[in-house]
Amino acid sequence: MAWVEIMTALALIQFAVFAALVGKARATYGIKAPAVSGNEMFERYYRVQMNTLEVLVLFVPGLWLAAGHLDDHWIVLLGAVYLIGRVVYFRAYVADPAKRGPGFSMSLVPSTILIVAGLVGAVRELLAG
């Protein structure tokens, strides 16, 4: 269970770092709260943060659902792919939003696998009685 907790903490820390980068971009590009538009570069940072939140809502519960059904090695592997995928997504989106696809896939696919693994594991437990 420690690996699940570590991966959860790393994903949350990563999100907090992205949020801080949005705050820095807000200052850099002169976007005063509560505005979320007005400068394309700021909007790229903001969209990375929001998309990360959207996928984080899938990743964290998926991680915990799968925890009782997958070996820790899979948890670490899928968690690492997710975290790296978010960095790839961040860099690509800020540089050229059209190139964000690989990073998005690298975070959505592990999240989906974790959710499915958790569901399949739970159904197997029910059927085993």
Which characteristics define this entry?
129 residues, Four Helix Bundle (Hemerythrin (Met), subunit A), 0% strand, mainly alpha
Tell me what the structure shows.
The protein is mostly helical. It has a single domain, classed as Four Helix Bundle (Hemerythrin (Met), subunit A). It is 83% helix and 0% strand. Helix 1 runs antiparallel to helix 2, helix 2 (40-67) runs antiparallel to helix 3 (72-95) and helix 2 runs parallel beside helix 4 (101-128). The mean pLDDT is 97.
Summarize the structure in short:
The chain has 129 residues and is mainly α. It contains four helices and no strands.
Briefly note the structural class of the backbone. mainly alpha
Mean pLDDT: 97
What CATH architecture label applies?
Answer: Up-down Bundle
Number of helices: 4
The tally of domains stands at 1
Task: Please provide the ordered H/E string of secondary-structure elements.
Answer: HHHH
CATH level-1 class: Mainly Alpha
Q: Report how far apart the termini are.
A: 24 Å
CATH superfamily: Membrane associated eicosanoid/glutathione metabolism-like domain
Alpha-carbon Rg, integer: 17 Å
What's the β-strand tally?
0
Could you say what the CATH topology is called?
Four Helix Bundle (Hemerythrin (Met), subunit A)
Which residue ranges are poorly predicted, with pLDDT under 50 across at least 5 consecutive positions?
Answer: none
| Share of residues in strands | under 5%
